[in-house]
Amino acid sequence: MHTRQSNIWIFDLDDTLHNASAHIFPVMNRAMTEYIMNHLALDEAGAHQLRQHYWRVYGATLKGLMRHHGTNPHHFLEETHLLEDLPNMVIETKRLRQVLQSLKGRKLVFTNAPRSYAMRVLEMLGIADLFELIFSVESTKFHAKPSLRGFQMLLKTIRAKASDCVMLEDNLPALMTAKRLGMKTIWVSKKLQKPNFVDYRLSNVLALTHIRL
């Protein structure tokens, strides 16, 4: 693989470095809906609708809850990411560590998940030590992706120019922000049609070894 030495690889976590949709997201989604039902006294349909609405408007449920209901973000994240059965939910990917180690340059994780959850998953995947930084939703002061502010805080923290960064992510709005800032964008997705703000599409992160940046 031919890359400039100065590449900074920014990886999303869920559904990018591992498959969260299979076992983790269904449980987490239930927990988020239940949290809203309990704290805002809504029925299931109402809670689900509110989540969808905030997801559409802000790109993250939590942002809407904080802005409109004064939800404590730390409490929300803790309650919705308990996942006591996490060791049985994380799907390991063979060769993932090898592929990541073969990438020249700095590597970090940028996730909308809380730090404690991100660390647990990365340790279970056996790759936590490969990243110089885990930039979690707390690191962005809850300006979760796709918010421009979260990205700007990340760049400031790592003292880097966007043009030196390669963003790998399954979420298109986040990639759109990355592209606006001047990052190279890699969409991790099984879908075939890629939008023009995506430079490369990979069906999974292991395919990284096949592209030239």
Count of discrete domains: 2
Number of strands: 6
Major beta sheet, strand line-up: 3-2-1-4-5-6
Spans where pLDDT lies below 50 across 5 or more residues: none
Fold blueprint:
Blueprint lengths: L7 E4 L12 H17 L3 H15 L2 H9 L3 H8 L5 H4 L6 H6 L4 E5 L4 H10 L8 E3 L12 H11 L6 E5 L2 H10 L2 E5 L11 E3 L11
Parallel strand pairs: 1-2, 1-4, 2-3, 4-5, 5-6
Helix pairs in contact: 1-2, 2-3
Description:
By secondary structure, this protein is α/β, with parallel strands linked by helices. The chain folds into two domains: 8-19 and 91-210, Rossmann fold (3-Layer(aba) Sandwich), CATH 3.40.50; 24-80, DNA polymerase, domain 1. 42% of the residues lie in helices and 12% in strands. It has helices at 24-40, 44-58, 61-69, 73-80, 86-89, 96-101, 115-124, 148-158, 172-181, and strands at residues 8-11, 106-110, 133-135, 165-169, 184-188, 200-202. The protein has a six-stranded parallel β-sheet with strand order 3-2-1-4-5-6, with helices on both faces. Helix 1 (24-40) packs across helix 2 and helix 2 (44-58) crosses helix 3. The longest helix has 17 residues, at 24-40.
